[in-house]
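Example record

One chain of 220 residues, shown exactly as stored in the release files.
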Amino acid sequence: MTTAIRKSNPPSRDSDATKNRIMDAAEDEFARAGLLGARTEAIAANTGVTKAMIFYHFGDKEGLYRAVLDRSVTKRLLALQKVDLQSVDPVEALGRYLKMFMRHAKDSPKVPPIFLFESMQNKGRFYTDMFVAVTYTPVIDILKRGIESGHFRKLDPEQTAVNVIGMCVFYYTSYNNVRSLWPAGTDLMSDEMKERHTRETIDMVIASVLNPEHIVSKSA
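Predicted structure tokens for this chain:
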């Protein structure tokens, strides 16, 4: 008797692409309403898939939410690994980190609003230690090094790190509130405006932490 050999179906080449399309649409929806207000029907409609397909890939809405957050932290971690923060002085290191962080914010402007909802709705339940490690810890370490070397004034590294990141992301969480500061029709999410925000923020952060005495002694 011959036995038929059952071949397993190979994974679909479009599986990863489908998951990324779903996460892109989910990112928009979570930025609009957070985890609690997001509707899987809207995500499915904007992706062109069924709700069943979303649940197949992610289990449920919370699973999809976690996947969106994980993708964000992975992107930031990979970007951070490409930045040399150790072989340069603290001023240069802070500038390099901010450029990397702001580039990530520029490319993923929907992520900061999601984190705002995460704080308000979920009390930070899904904001893992990994987000702290790739967002705040590098800034705290650079600030401490700069204080010790005299490049930066005496300040509270943890409090300052929170304020620094706040300066970076407030633009993206509140642009609908502050857009009236610009002429009607100005697109605050255009590449030009996001780049302007990046330059202004980095200049302001560096200027706010520098030690005036170090600047004077260096120029003397």
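Notes: The chain is about 70% helix and 0% strand.
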